[in-house]
Each structure stands twice: as C-alpha cells, then as structure tokens.
Fold these 3 entries.
Entry 1:
Amino acid sequence: MTETAKAPEASAPPDTSGQTDTNVAMVEMPPWWRGAIFVGERQTDVVFPAAVPIRAAMQALIKLLNKDGATRQGYIPMPETTAYELQQVNGITLDASRSLLELGVADGVPLVLKPGVAKETFKPVTEDRSASLAKQVKDETSEIKPEQALVFGGIGIGILVAAASALLIRTHLLEPTWWPAWVICIVLAAAMLAAGWGIGRHGRHGDLSDTLILGALIPAATAAATGVPGPLGAAHAWLAWLLVTAILVVLRVATDRWWWLSTFALALGVSLGVGVGVRWLFGVSGPIIAACLMWVALPLVLAAPGLANRLAGLRPPNLELPTGAGVWERNPDEPDETVSPVVPATPNDQPYPDVVSPEDLRRRNRHSITAHRAIIAALMVQLVATTWGAIHAGSPRLWMIEVVAGLGLVSLLGRAWITRDAKVVAALIGGILLTGAVVVAKLAVSDAQTVPATVTALGWLAAALVGIGVLTALVGLPGDLSPPTRRALQYMYLLAMSLGFPFLLWGIGLLTAVRSR
C-alpha cells in the first residue's frame, strides 16, 4: 500500500484559497519523496516530505506505520516515545536535523527505520529541571581518568618517601650510630628511579614516570646529606644539591628532557655552592658572602641569554650594550612579531656549524628559551635569599648594601622592560618586588634595640622601589622605550655593576680570613 506522511503544522503550507494573487504570493508545496521504508522484514511504501527535517516528520511517520500495521495480523505497534532513526540499506544513519532533500536521497531509494542507539547520557547528582544547567555541569566537571589516578598515586608515594626521609634525618641527628640512614635513602631513590625509568621506557604513563623520578630526588638528597660525617650544615646541603643536580643532568642528556628543572638546579647551585665552599673552607662571615653573591646575580642576569645558548648548543649573540638593546630588537625590514639581530650575518658566517637540520635548530632554540627562563628564575631566587642574608640592622655598611641593592633593582627593571619573553619579565618583576620586600621585612624583624634614622629612611626607600616596580610593571611594555630612556637604563646598569666593586673590596675579609688560617 502507499501512504502519505503529513508534515507537522509548523511545516505545512498555509491555506491560500481565499486569497488573491494580487496581494499574496502563492506558497509552493514542499517536494515529496516516494519510496519504501523497511521496519524489520516489513515493507511500507510511503510519501515523505523531502524538504522537512527528518526529526520534524518522524512522529507523523511512526503514526502512519502503526496505522498501516494495525490492518495486519500479529503486528506489534511501535512506541511513539522511542527515538528512531532512518538509515540507508548500507547502514549509514541519516542526520535527523536535515531533510532528505539536503541529504540528496533520491526517489525510490529504500530506507530502513530502526530504534535509535542508546547513547551515553549524563545524570547529574542533583536533578534539575533545566537541561542547560545539567549540560553546564557536564562540561565543567569530568571524572578522574586512569592516568590521573596513577599520577595521584605517584604523588602519594612521593609524599610518603619525603616523610620517611625526614624521619631518617631526625633519627640520624638523634642517634648517628643507628643503621645508616643514607643506605636506606639510596635504596629508596634507586627503586623509584628504576620504577620511573621502566614505566617511561615504553612511552606510556609518562606523567607517572615523571612523578616517580622527581620523588626519587628527595631520598637522593637525604642520602647525600646524611652520608657525610659531622653535624648537618652548609656542606651537607651543598653535597645534596650536587647529587640532585648530577641526576637531573644525566636525565636531561639521556632523554633530552628536564631542561628547565636541571638548568634551574645548576644555575642556583653554582653560586650558592661557591658561597657554601668558602664558608666551609675559610669560615668567612655569612653576611659578607651573601652580599657578594647578591652583587654576582646582576652580571649573571646580563649573561643569561648567552649561557642559555651555550647550554643548548647555540652560539650566543654578541651583545653590544649591557642591556642588550642594540642587538636583540625588531629589524625594520621584518614583520612586527619578528625578533632577530639588527646586524645581518655575513655570507661566510656560519653561526651553527654543528646543526644538522632545521628541526635540530628549532629544537635547540626551544631548549635555549627554556634554559634562559630557568636561569633567570634561579638568579631571582638567589637574589632574594642573599638579600635576606646580607641585610642586618646593626651593620655599619648597611647603607652601602641598600644603595647598591636599590640600583640593582632599577637595573633589573630595565632588563624587564626590554625583554620580550613574558615569563622572563614575570620572573624579573617578581624578583624585584620580593627583594624590595625582603629589605623592609628584614629591618622590621631585626632584634636590634636601636635602628638609626638613616636605616629607616633607606628601608622606606626600598618600599618606594617596590611601589615603583609595581607601577612600571603596569604601564611599561617590553621594548616600548625611547632611545634616551634606553641609554639612561644602560648607564644605570653600568653604575650598578661598578658599585659592585666596593662589595668585592668589602669582601676583602675573604683574603684576611685566608691569611689568618
């Protein structure tokens, strides 16, 4: 038999019999599709509106098929509340939001009507009458994945190992003759490194592998600190850093990863290791060492791009100015987003003779950027820590330390102004703010009975520098400085460098300590 599936009222053409052609245009009837629809083994010939979305006419089609089936013996009516879908005979499901005309289904092509496949639905914990709210909850929340569960398990292992390491250190301090703590820590570190390497070797569960490897650094540092005889002190801390850095460097060389963490540990530990060594060997005063290291951070910030390039295997740029403003800036002949040397290379210049491919050059450049960020972050940590150690309210040379520290902060602000890497700018501004705050905080918590008015004034000066740093960070954009401002910052940087020399003269106490021994 042949039946006609009527379109719903929204899609049915209006009755225009009572209207004339003069005032209302005739509305054309939608085209019709004629063909056979199979429901199971039963075939029904129907006429279906081809210009109406399939979903809009589906209910009328179900009623039509049920009406036709009622005349047949043994027919089971199709539930009208069930979702159905139309398919081609090859199993391809037609998009219910589109019409047969849009899908290009020709007349006479048989179609198959089947119940829709039950898709995974979201059931909110609290039922709400708004489906949009339930969808928002589904979009903004997600179940924990197996990979994430493994990472959380690795973090838990690291926390337990850290607690065990702290307990072993405590036991070592109370009873050094007990079973050597460093042996237990070495076993823990070796087991975690082996587990992390074994898991990461197959290329799966990389996050869990990284978590275990990072956790292994804790017992490794504990083993180095407790394996040397004598009470725990600066020397033990430096040996712990040495072992951790060695592990990270080996991992970086073996896997070409861990660039940021290994470079950060290396840059932070070299200067602090030198200070610890001088303190250990010659017994020099801690404030003197801290003051010298505070000044050393300034030229190292200037040399950070070159050091990063050397670590990545690239030839460092030849910086013409202390601020680097004369080399690394935009070339007028290049797009606005391009940063390259202003001075072009000569034809005979081979800056990267050992680079084997453009991919290798991009890889090294990416490592150089990562290493530069790590070096700056380590130097800012060093600057904050050494400033805290160098500031003492009762020191007769406090005014010199604060003046040089203030000029150094201004010079670092100039570096942040001409730097284009947002993460480096954030590290420099953060170091400036924390260092200025450390000066004020150290004077505030000083146990000196009387603080000279000069010290108080210089403390307020440091607080003003913090405010200046905040304002300039908000209004200053990298590279948007006039040539006179750049030149002023250059001389400010040179002044800060030259005032570092009195620090070294003040550190002549090093030579006195050596001669006395």
Entry 2:
Amino acid sequence: MSGTTVVSFSGGRTSAYMLRHVLVANDDLDDLIVTIANTGEAHPAIRQPRLCV
C-alpha cells in the first residue's frame, strides 16, 4: 500500500482479521494508523483490543 493506511479496529473477529492481513501483507508500516472506537453498543468487546496491545 502506498500513502497512509488507516485501519479501524473494533476488537471483533472481522476487524482483527482485516488488521492481521494488513500487517502480514505490508513490510513498511511507517504510515499505518490503527484506530479503536467504542460506540458503547459492544462494551464487552472493548476488552479484546486491550489484550491485543
């Protein structure tokens, strides 16, 4: 990928799968930004991103 890549990570399976593939597929991750947003709808899922850090 060229330029800045932004991945929205919710802590769920789908976003974790996407983030993993972005990390594996790219050697140069200097311009990678990972965001985490808690909407309040999936409160238990917010624990998962903390475990991934």
Entry 3:
Amino acid sequence: FGGEGNDQIWGDAGDDIIRGGLGNDLLVGDNDSGGRGNDVFILAKGEGKDTILDFRNGEDLIGLAGDLTFDQLNVIQGKGKEAGDTLIEHRETGEQLAVLKDVDSSTIDADDFTTASEPEPDPQPEPEPEPEPEPDPQPDPQPDPQPDPQPDPQPDPQPDPQPDPQPDPQPDPQPDPQPDPQPDPQPDPQPDPQPDPQPDPQPDPQPDPQPDPQPDPQPDPQPDPQPDPQPDPQPDPQPDPQPDPQPDPQPDPQPDPQPDPQPDPQPDPQPDPQPDPQPDPQPDPQPDPQPDPQPDPQPDPQPDPQPEVVNIRDPRVPKFTPGDDEAALIAKNVPSITIGTQTIYFGQQQVSANNQNPIIASFDSANPSNNWVRTDYERTSPDGRTYGLYWDGDDLYVSFSIVGTGGSPNEDFRRASSDAETRWLRSYGQGGGARVSVVGRIDPATGELLDAAYITAELTNGSSNGLTITDLSTNGRGNLVVTARTASHPRKSNGDPVFIGGLDDYQVELTSDLKRVVSTSVDNL
C-alpha cells in the first residue's frame, strides 16, 4: 500500500496485491518485468492515475476497491505517447484510474477485473521498524490510511459481485425457453393453413356452374316468348271490336274489352321479363366473383404474419458446443424459436478461458436439409455472444453482442455491415470493453450471415457506450424496429449522440436489409 503521494511499488516473486493509494503511482508486480506469480493491482476512485508496467492478461487481475464496478469503467486504447497502452477511466466522471503499459485494450474484458479486498498484512511490519532509528514517521502514515479504506470497501464489494453473477444467469434461461418456443409456434401454423384452403375452393365451383346454366336457358325462353305474344294479341283485338259494337254496343264492349285486354297483357309481360333477367344475372355474377376472391387472398396473407415469433434474452445465455445434439440442448435449457417443423437454438460457445463466440444450431426432423450449426459469425478475441432471434414471416434476424474490435473484417460482423449506407452501422466504433449490440439477417436454410448492423451509443470522448437490444419487431412499412436500453448518449439517425441517460425504450428504425437508419426515437431531442 503506497499511501499518499506519488509512489513506486514493486511486488516480490509470487502472488502480490498492490495498491498505490493517493497520488499518481507506479506499480510493478514482480522484481523482473517478465513477472512471476498472479498479481492483483487495486484501483479506486479519487486516488490518482496508477501506471502498471507488467500486467499479464490471463494471469494478473485488476482489483476494484470501494463501490467501483466494471460497469462504471471505460477500457480504451491510449493515444499519442500512450497509443500502445490501455487506459482505464471512470465512465461518469472521466477520471483516469490507471494505464496498462504495452497492453492492447481489445484483450481486456470483465474477466480481468475482480473485487478488491483490503490487504491485511500491512500492520505486520509495525513491530519491525520500532527498534530501528526511524520508528516515528513509519507508524504515523500507516495507521491513518488503513482504517479509512478498510471499513468502506469491505461491505460494498462483497455483497454486490457475489449475488449478481451467480443467481442471475441461472433463473433467466431455465424458465423462459421451455414455455415460450414449444407451445406457441406448434399449434399456430398447423391448424390455420390446412382447414382454410381445402374446404373453400372445392364446394363452390362444382355446384354453382352445373345446376344454374342448364335449367334456366332451356325451359324459360322457349315457352314464355312463343305462346304469349302470338295467341293473345291476334284473337282478342280482331273478334271483339267487330261483333260487339254493332249488336250490343253498350253492354258487350264494356265487360268484354275491360277484362280481356287488362288481364292478358298485364300478367304475361310482367312475370316473363321479371323472372328471366333477375334470376339469371344475379346468381351468376354474384356467387362466382364473391367466393373466388374472398377465400383465395384471405388464407394466403393470414398464415404469413402468424408464424412471427421473437425470443430475446439477456446476453448471459447458456453455453453449448457444435457437437451437442438437440436432446442435449433441450436438457441445457438453450433458448430457441420454432418455424414450422424447424427449431433454431442460440447461445454462446466457450472457445478459451476468457473468450466466447456466438453459436446457432438448427434441427428439422421433417426436412433434414435444414439441419446446420454455425460458429463463424465472430471469431476474434473480443467476447461475442448470440442472445436473440426474430422471425417476421419472411426474414430471420439475430441479436448479437460484442465488446470491441479485433482481427480482420472477414472474421467478424464487419464482412456483412461494411456496405451499410448509414456510416455508424458499419463497425463497433472507438474504444473497447463496452458491450454493444449487432443486428444480423441470416438464411434460415443454411444459417449464413447475409446483412449486419452495429447498434451503439457514443460517449462525449468519442468512445462507444454499451447498448443491449430488448426487442425486435416489424412496423407497417415493413421496416425493422430495434428496441434497446443504454445508460447514456443514444444516437440520432445521423449518428450524433444525445446527452441523456437511463433510456430503457430507445428505438431505431432500419430498412429490412439493415442498410439504412430511417429514424430513431431521439431525433427530435
């Protein structure tokens, strides 16, 4: 423990716990720069900027004292004289806590940090310097800093880190994947498409055309026009006016012409034209066009949106390997979605002690050509995971996470995002360590990554800030709507950050091919 002032502290061979205290201190884990043993370099707010010379990734750890946690830090690559070093700064205040000399920031993640416990062997050297000629100055500075940091950091870091990593990941993946994917998608697609198209087209066309055209034209036109016009006008007008007006002008013409001409022409023309034109045109055009267009377009568009399904989880999803079969994935409670007879599982693959990569596996008992496993979405040193799938009826979208940039573009999502029209969708951006999101569009038949877009926030220093996707959906314009949460500084459509924090419902509207940002929920701020 260095105490106040600018100190230079060197550890010995073996496992050391080193803290500089107040001031800008130089910390070295072991006697030689190569270092031996696993060392812990302790950082705290308000104690100045520590320079760590021999940090070894995978062997040494960075201890966080007080109420300091990894989520409060920015781990970025240095600039200028510190271009080859990694800077660790407090995200909210911008205070620089430490510089790791000759360390690439893309290799530093949450696994390199631990909760610091105050070193207890500090009071042991008190009896040794008492017989020496300098007893007074040594006990004075040592007891002053020791009681202050010991009570404060011990209660805070011990309860916080232990409950977070252990209970959170276990309850989340276990209850969610079983009820969501299995009951919902199976009953919906099977009953809907089968009953609708089969009963409607078969009964309608067969009964309508056969009975209607045969009886109507044969009996109706032949008997009605021939007997009615010929007998009625010829016998009635000729015999009645000649004999009737001469002998009986008054009684005969009055009763005879009135009943004869009135009943004959009135009943004959009225029933004949009315039944013929009315029944013939009405049944033919009305039943034919109505049943044909109504059943055909209705069943086609309805089953397409019905299989829409989404499953978005916390990035801490279960791990599995390419060799696991479907029974093993079900036993591990790996989350999934179901499209017809195809079930697609997603999660992370542990490829090294400190690195995970995204993994997606598809199983289809009815169509074995849909069986595939893909692990090539991201193969670089920064930690990457798959934590969500969304099927909108036409396209299959994936939500990934990544904590930095490493390797070449053909080894990560940049191979599918580099042609985006909106520039900030193309890459992770500056810095590293913050977990951002990537939306991908993949081929359900092969799992191939077709398009991708990085969704990030941006701090005032230009570094990318963390962002987690919580939902994916499609709006009425056919565009993809991404809902996410971020601690601060979400982007507008043009990429400019907005200086607000604590957003749980930040939205970005993208074209369906993920090439362009249409709008965001903070454009008017």
